[in-house]
Design brief:
Layout: E1 21-24, H1 26-39, E2 48-56, E3 59-67, E4 70-72, E5 80-82, H2 84-97, E6 102-108, H3 117-124, E7 137-141, E8 152-166, E9 174-185, E10 187-189, H4 193-205, H5 213-243, H6 251-263, H7 270-312, H8 317-338
Parallel strand pairs: 1-3, 1-10, 6-7
Antiparallel strand pairs: 2-3, 2-6, 4-5, 7-8, 8-9
Amino acid sequence: MTSVDETTPPPTTNSSSEVIDVTVHPLVLLSAADHYHRVARGTRKRAVGVLLGSSSRGRVDATNSFAVPFEEDSKNSEVFYLDHNFLENMLAMFRKVHAKERVVGFYSTGPQIRPNDLRIHSLVSRFVPAGTVTPPVFVIIDVRPNRESIPTTAYRVVEEVDSNVPTGGEGGGSVAEVRKSFAHVPSLIGAMEAEEVGVEHLLRDINDPTVSTVANLVKAKLSGLSTLTEKLVEMKDYLTAVSQGKMKPNSEIIANMQAIVNLLPNLNVEELVRSMLVKNNDMHMVIYLSALIRCVIALHDLVLNKIAYNDEVGDGFGEVAEKKVKSAVDAGEEKKEEK
C-alpha cells in the first residue's frame, strides 16, 4: 500500500481510466457524519455507504451518498455482511430522482483501511454502470471532532506484482503473483453555489455568539500550525523509513516534499524575522483595538437602552424612594408636635 500526500500533483498520463482527484461535496460529509452517529457512535464499528456522482477525464465528483447496512466481525476480519438488496433498491430510487448520478465508489468512517475494503470495493464495482471508464474510488471520511486537517482521504485500487510469494512446495521456491492494493489519490472539498449558501446558513446556526472574533482567529491559526506540524512529522517519518530501507523511495513524493520545503520561509534571516514580528504585532493590535471598541460601544448601547426603558416604563425604584422620603418627613413632623 502506497501513500501520497494530498498535495501530490496529478499523474502525467492523460488516460481517463486513471483517477486524478476526488472532489467530495458537503452533502456527502453531512450524510456520512449522520450515518456514523446513528449506527456506530461510541463503538468500534464503522459506517459504510455508497458514493454517487459523476466523473470526467479521471476527475471524480461525489455529490451525493446513501448509507448501506453493514456489519463485520471484530474477531474475524474476513467475515462481513453488506445488504445487496437494499443497495439495489436504493440505486433504483435514486435513478428516478436524478438519472445522471451514478455509483462512483464507496465511503467508510475508518479511520484506517481495513482488510475487508478490497472485497467491498469488488462488490461495489458490480453496481457501476457498464461502459464506465473511471474505476470506483474508496474514500475514508474521518468523523472524529479532534481532526484538524481535511477529513477525507481518497484511494484507488492498483495491481502490483509480488515476486516473493512462496510456492509451498518442497523446493521452497517463489512465484510472481498479482495483488491488488490501495493507492492514495488527492482529495478536496468542493461545493456548488447552492451548497455554499446552505453551508453558510448551517454554520451561522451552529455559531457560538459568546466566542469573540479574536478567539476564532487565534483558534484557526493554532489549528493551521498544528496541521502543518503533523504533516512535517509525517514527512520526516517517511524519509526516515526510506533511509532505513523500510519503504521504497517514490520520486513523486520526494519531489513534492522538496517543493514544500522550498516554499517554507527562511527564519534564520534577521530582517525577515523582524518584519514578520512587526507586521503580526500591527495586525493583532488593530484586531484587539477593534474588538475593544466594539465591546465598549455595545456596553454604551446597553446603558442607553436601560435608561430609555426606565424612562418609558419605570422600574419602581423612584416611587419607593419617594415613599421613604415622605414617611421620614411625616415622622419628623409628628415628633415636633409631640415636643
